[in-house]
Amino acid sequence: MNILRSIVMAFCMFSRIPMPTVEWKNENMRYMLCAFPLVGAVIGAVLWLWQLLSAALGFGPLLWAAGLTLLPVAVTGGIHMDGFCDVSDALASHAPAEKKRAILKDSHTGAFAIITLGCYLLLYTALASEMPMTGRSALLLGLMHVLSRILSGTISLIYPKSDAEGLLRTFTLSADKKPAVAILLVLLILCAAALVWVRPVTGAAMVLGGLLTALWMKRLSAKQFGGMSGDLSGYFLQLAELIMLLCCVVISKVVVL
């Protein structure tokens, strides 16, 4: 039952999908980060339906790409994009780590967050427009959303934290850390294998892009913020998806496999 409650809590926290009410307590959050990739699987299913609808109605590349960009935000409610904007503001301040952490907690949206968000959405939509309107494209992108959440959950558990308080610390302290990390690593291997199976070279490039972003995130979080936080986890997820999509598009232009 704790596993089911953890799944429900993962969807309550990381998506806008209606879920039954579950009590907010530690045992119900024990495997929540392990269930986090299931939100990515739901996004993949939504993108697959979008591909079927787009192909059936003859949508053009721009509308197809807009759906690939905005549907994941609609499913998640923008929770990770919020973290991306907060971190963008903090990084643009060039302030000491303590001041950057204060900016993350500020509810106001700065100019640099808006500018960075606009650039992100424009680049993501442009890259998505290069994806063929096929079931294989929807599958690749669906697996990408699963992989980004596997990596986000893993680094949230194993990387040092910046604050003694905060949701991320609550989630990680509530988790059975060793079993949770082991489960996420198994899911990482399975998801990476699936990406390589769908398109060997392109899938391998996407996995490598996600892993390198995760390694870079450890240095960024430690140097700029003194450790990970919930906002940084969201920032990583959005950045990893952009990098993996970039890898997918660039490699697919060069290699057929």
Strand-helix topology:
Layout: H1 2-14, H2 32-57, H3 61-76, H4 79-93, H5 97-105, H6 111-128, H7 135-158, H8 167-174, H9 177-198, H10 200-225, H11 230-254
Structure explained in plain terms:
With 257 residues, this protein is mainly alpha-helical. It has one domain (2-252). 79% of the residues lie in helices and 0% in strands. The protein contains eleven helices and no strands. The longest helix is centred in the N-terminal third of the chain and has 26 residues, at 32-57. The mean pLDDT is 90.
What are the defining features of this structure?
mainly alpha, 257 residues
Question: Mean of residue pLDDT?
Answer: 90
Overall number of domains:
1
* Total of DSSP H or I helical runs spanning 4+ residues: 11
- Radius of gyration, in Å, reads 18 Å
- Tertiary shape: globular
Q: Give the distance, in angstroms, between the N- and C-terminal Cα atoms.
A: 43 Å
Short structural summary:
With 257 residues, the chain is mainly alpha-helical.
